[in-house]
Amino acid sequence: MAHALTIGRLARSAGMPAKTIRYYEEVGVLPRPPRTAAGYRQYTEDSVQRLLLIRRARALGVSLQHLKGLVVALDGGSRGALRPRLRELIRAHLGDVQRRIGELEMLRRQLEQVLHSLDTRGRGRPGGRCQCLETVSRA
Questions:
Q1: Does 70 or 111 have the greater pLDDT score?
Q2: 1-62 in CATH: which number?
């Protein structure tokens, strides 16, 4: 193996804890590396590139389950198949994010209504029943 890296060196190169690397191996996102006779993992520079791809995908919110599908394309040797699969995955994820943004916008409006209600209703009605959260059910 040309210029093997220890897990510590790999972790520093990829900017993530060794514990995370071991986890990625356990769940199948990162292939298990060969080991020395003493049991030390031996990684290559390709492992650094794979971890950087994984880290970027995770930062974009790609699930480990979806990453496993991408890893199959990488390991299958068909790098040409990776780009279309990645494009499809990112489009689907973008759609999910846009849907969640819409839901959060609706929640923001409801919270603003409740806050406005809390600020304006019930003034001058001591002992009156609070109706401040009723606007949410009507919205």
A1: 111
A2: 1.10.1660.10
